[in-house]
Amino acid sequence: MNDVIEGIVGKTISGQRSRTPARLDYIQSATGLFLALFMWAHMFFVSSILISNDFMYAVTKFFEGAWLIDGGSPLFVSLAVGIVFVVFIVHAAIATRKFPVTYRQFRAYRSHMKMMKHSDTNLWFVQALTGFSMFFMGSVHLYIMLTNPGNIGPYASADRVVTGWMWPLYILLLLAVELHGSIGLYRLCVKWGWFEGKNAAQSRKRLKKVKWGVTAFFLLLGTLTLIAYIKIGIDHAGHAGERYIPASEVSQ
Ligand code: HEM
Questions:
Q1: Architecture of domain 19-243
Q2: Which position has the higher pLDDT, 80 or 3?
Q3: 69-83, 90-104, 206-220: which has the minimum mean pLDDT?
Q4: Is the N or C terminus of the chain more exposed, i.e. has fewer CB atoms within 10 Å?
């Protein structure tokens, strides 16, 4: 159905096919690649808490630009969040054109999916569902980061997770983003023929294994990280709002 509509709107008045659908596809791939790679980096930065509070503090100060101006400024964080937020919105807006828009289309897709029993078709469904859920969950997180850029750090983050009740959202968001991101990267590889090699069928099987490995790795890293923030947040709940002072500054 979507193809029929696209076929109709894809024709310009002069009878030539429009390049818009191809351009939108390209923008969707490029924004998706940016977001997926950003999420890998993000998970490593956030998991700095697993090494030590001081290390997470140092990472935070780095992103506040403490290497550039004395003491740094949360404005750098807001700027980065603003850029990610815009890319996130563009990616989501373009993705909506692939969603089934009526219940009839949804039913048709589901019965097609049951009949085919094709794992890539099932993956598409997981990706659409997790993507839809991230419209809401991702926006909540990004808006909080955008408006509270100075409230990141070992205690500030842990207080937000526990006292600020962000942990239920983070559990769901973590699941959604890790499934969505790695399925998305897998689909990009298949779509644009990256790592195809000589035997496309064989490399697709290999890619799928790598995809599950990547999902498992980031889910494990994210879960351990979340447990670390929850533990610190529970211990610090009585002093919620007090900021972390690194060991180097305490001894001064
Ligand atoms: C530049 C933009 C972003 C910044 C600065 C940022 C920053 C952070 C920080 C500091 C935390 C630790 C908890 C806290 O302080 O509340 C966190 C956790 C988290 N963020 Fe982001 N984030 C960004 C974008 C995103 C995006 C786009 C997503 C996914 C849509 C995302 C998903 C998550 C998840 C799932 C967690 C929980 C981590 C875990 O379970 O270990 N973040 N983020």
A1: Up-down Bundle (1.20)
A2: 80
A3: 90-104
A4: C
Indicate if the pLDDT at residue 7 is higher than 90. Answer: no
The yes-or-no verdict on residue 135 having pLDDT over 90 is yes
pLDDT at position 57 over 70: yes
Q: Give the distance (Å) from ligand 1 centre to CA of residue 141.
A: 7
Q: Say whether pLDDT at 4 is over 90.
A: no
Q: Are 187 and 123 in contact (CB under 8 A)?
A: yes
Pocket of ligand 1 (CB under 6 A): 42, 46, 77, 80-81, 84, 88, 134, 138, 141-142, 145, 152, 157, 160-161, 166, 170, 173-174, 177, 222, 225-226, 229
Q: Are 158 and 236 in contact (CB under 8 A)?
A: yes
Residue spans per domain, the chain: 19-243
Q: Which amino acid is at 109?
A: Y
Q: How far is the CA of 194 from the centre of ligand 1 (A)?
A: 29
